[in-house]
Write a structure and sequence with these properties.
There is one protein chain. The protein has helices at residues 3-6, 54-65, 140-143, 145-153, 215-227, 250-259, 269-277, 304-335; strands at 74-78, 90-96, 114-120, 123-129, 157-166, 176-183, 234-241, 263-265, 281-291. By secondary structure, it is an alpha/beta fold. A five-stranded mixed barrel has the order 5-8-7-6-9. Helix 2 crosses helix 4 and helix 5 crosses helix 8. The chain is globular. The two termini are 37 Å apart. The structure holds hypoxanthine. Residues 163-165, 242, 247-248, 264-266, 289-290, 292, 302, 307 line the site of hypoxanthine (HPA).
Length: 336
């Protein structure tokens, strides 16, 4: 690995101007050695330009390939408090994020920060225990960088999970909302992980997103929920991502309601955009951990403790749900 590439790894923000053809701006250096970009490196694309080019992602993937003894087909991204899903995986090999070349490092309490490769219901899977959020200070392309690593590992399908506030008045705390679609609210102000130069080896310059949440996978999931007799707390709706870390104001939530948004969280959208771009099928669900407050006179407030508590309460149901889902999804991959 070249020394300039090595500087990309292990936490810190990455200098924003490296180009997707492997050149790194004016003097070939991405970092000044302490993880911060050189001022001369602040290129015309600013924070939008994704320096994780194909070669760099390949190095991360190769590190994992050299150390895994199975070929995962399905990737699972665990949301807040849902990381214990990874405990169900057997024959595990674990990769702490700080070990993987170029991988960001998770900073949130409750996000363990490792990739777990093994079997779930005899299906080879890779599970991301701990994800990267925009509110942690990462550029949006860094939040979804692991998805491109998944692609180069041969992943065909991704399950994304998250904790979200319920905006739809028919939703209750503890409900599970299957994602039918999303609204990329940060995208309205130009924040999209695909901004900057496009590398056709990953996907199209202008990828469609109208089938981002695969319909056949949603149908299978609803059948599995029925089989498990947990369908009474299942919903299907539209998710949005806010940048966070603040919870939303009453006026913001009221505006979101007008947009037709059913649940709001702080993740998932960059990962699904990046996965769709490179041809990975997506299935997502939100655990509704709190009710969004849309009354100006309400006394209650949103709190992280409530989110964690609800996630804890539902974790066994969700583990069972994902464990049952995975073999059906594997069959679906083989069919398509
Ligand atoms: N808003 C944003 N993100 C969240 C919420 C919320 O109400 N609940 C869990 N994640």
């Amino acid at each position: 690995m070249s020394s300039s590439l090595r500087k990309l790894s292990h936490g810190g923000m990455i200098g924003p101007c490296a180009s997707s053809n492997g050149s790194n701006g004016t003097n070939g250096s991405i970092s000044n050695g302490n993880g911060h970009p050189k001022s001369t490196d602040l290129g015309k694309f600013g924070n939008l330009e994704n320096p994780y080019n194909f070669e760099i992602i390949s190095e991360s993937a190769q590190y994992i390939k050299d150390r895994m003894n199975i070929k995962p087909e399905i990737a699972i991204i665990c949301g807040s408090g849902l990381g214990s899903l990874a405990d169900t995986i057997t024959d595990k090999v674990e990769f702490p994020y700080e070990e993987i070349p170029h991988f960001p490092v998770s900073t949130v309490a409750g996000h363990a920060g490792k990739l777990v490769i093994g079997h779930l219901s005899n299906v080879p899977v890779i599970c991301m225990q701990g994800r990267f959020h925009f509110y942690e200070g990462y550029p949006i392309w860094k939040c979804s960088m692991p998805v491109r690593v998944f692609k180069l590992l041969g992943i065909k399908l991704m399950i994304v999970t998250n904790a979200a506030g319920g905006l739809n008045p028919n939703y209750s705390i503890g409900d599970v909302m299957i994602l039918k679609d999303h609204i990329n609210l940060p995208g309205f102000s130009g924040i999209n992980p695909l901004c900057g130069r496009n590398d056709e080896r990953f996907g199209l310059r202008f990828p469609p997103l109208n089938k981002a949440y695969d319909k056949s996978l949603r149908t299978i999931a609803k059948e599995v929920a029925k089989e498990l007799k947990i369908d009474h707390f299942f919903q299907e709706g539209v998710y949005t991502m806010v940048g966070g870390p603040t919870y939303e104001t009453v006026a913001e939530l009221r505006a979101m309601k007008l947009f037709g948004i059913d649940a709001v969280g702080m993740s998932t959208v960059p990962e699904v955009i990046t996965a769709s771009h490179c041809g990975i099928k997506c299935f997502g669900f939100s655990l509704i951990t709190n009710v969004c407050i849309t009354d100006f006179d309400a006394e209650e407030e949103a709190s992280h403790e409530e989110v964690v508590e609800t996630a804890h309460m539902r974790q066994n149901d969700l583990k069972e749900f994902v464990t049952r889902l995975v073999p059906h999804f594997e069959k679906q991959i083989q069919r398509s």
